[in-house]
Amino acid sequence: MTKTLSALTIAIAFQSAMLLAQKPGGMQGIDQQKHREIMPIHAKIMEKQKAQDAEIDKLLAEVNNASGEKRIDAIVAVLNKLVEQRKTMNAEISAHLDR
User: Fold this and answer.
1) Is residue 27 situated within a structural domain?
2) pTM of the full predicted structure?
3) What percentage of the chain's residues is helix, strand, coil (to nearest 5)?
4) Which of 21, 62, 66, 95 could join 70 via S-S bond, C-beta 3.0 to 4.6 A?
5) Angle, to 10 degrees, between the axis of helix 68-97 and the axis of helix 32-65?
6) Which domain holds residue 86?
7) Residue 47: what pLDDT?
8) For residues 12 and 53, what is the distance between their CA atoms, to the nearest angstrom?
9) CA 97, CA 88: separation in Å to the nearest integer?
10) Total domain count, the chain
11) 3-state DSSP assignment of residue 66
12) pLDDT averaged per 10 residues, the chain (length 99)
């Protein structure tokens, strides 16, 4: 159980590190036209994030229902999925910033 909690704590720390690194007030000073352009992109990102959350919820359910070696495998699957999602998100952000 301690290993499970440690692994999940590490996963949550990786996932939330991006939020803590962001500058506060990112939308302050943006003009209305730019805001209208960004809103559909934001909505798409939020939709994708909900789908990713559903993937993680499914994997966490597998962790909670597993025991022994299968539980460890399930935890590794959660960590791998979180890292994959984070890398994808970073690539997408970079692509938008490079425009």
Assistant:
1) no
2) 0.61
3) 85, 0, 15
4) 66
5) 170
6) 2-16+39-97
7) 92
8) 12
9) 14
10) 1
11) coil
12) 60 60 58 83 89 95 96 96 93 80
